[in-house]
Amino acid sequence: MKDHHIIKLGKYIFGLCFALGNICLFGYLITDIDDFAYYGFLLLIFGTALNLPVALVLLIYGITHEPKSDACLKSIGIMMINIPIAIIYAVIGLHII
Predict the structure, then answer these.
(1) In angstroms, rounded to a whole number, what is the distance separating the alpha carbons of residues 72 and 79?
(2) Angle at which helices 3-31 and 69-80 pack, to 10 degrees?
(3) What is the pLDDT of residues 79-88, one digit of tens each?
């Protein structure tokens, strides 16, 4: 796998989880439909279930293929940006509901 493919994987997963989190949060704030809040909390669970195995696979891949370790760590770092964003969104969601 090429370095830019590895980094793109992290960007795609980050973008997917970030976009879905924004849809859930702002969908609830704009419409007051409780389903957005419910699916936002489900997104925390399923987002973790998606990000954790991908990060683990990238970590193992980076360890076994030493020249790719920098790209794997960059990709994992990009995906980890979602963690503080998810915490902030969860706190906002808990205070609104």
Answers:
(1) 11
(2) 0
(3) 999 999 999 9
Residue with tokens 């683990």: 56
Look up residue 28 and give its two tokens. 């609830």
4-43 pLDDT, tens digit each:
999 999 999 999 999 999 999 999 999 989 999 899 999 9
- Reading the block at residue 91, the tokens are 């706190």
Torsion angle, alpha carbons of 22, 23, 29, 31, to 10:
170
Nearest to 44 by CA among 89, 76, 94, 3: 89
Burial (CB < 10 A; 0-12, 13-18, 19+), residue 34, is: exposed
| Angle at which helices 82-96 and 34-64 cross, to 10° | 160
